[in-house]
Amino acid sequence: MDFSFTEEQLMIQEAARDFAQREIVPIAAEFDISGKFPEETLRKAGELGFMGVEVPEEYGGSALDAVGFALMMEEIAAADAAHSTIISVHNSLYCNGILQYGTEEQKQKYVTPVASGEVFAAYALTEPQSGSDAANMRTRAVRDGDHYVINGKKSWITSGPVARYILLFAMTDPAAGPKGVSAFMIDTEKDGFHRGKIEPKLGIRASATCEIELADYRCPVEDRIANEGDGFKIAMSILDAGRIGIAAQAVGIARAAYEASLQYVRERHAFGTPIGSFQMIQAKVADMKMRLEAARLLTLKAAWNKKVAAAAGLRNTTESSCAKLFASEAAMFITHAAVQIHGGMGYSKEMPIERYFRDAKITEIYEGTSEIQRMVIARQETGLR
Ligand code: CAA
Question: Based on the domain organization, do 210 and 238 belong to the same domain?
Answer without folding.
Answer: no
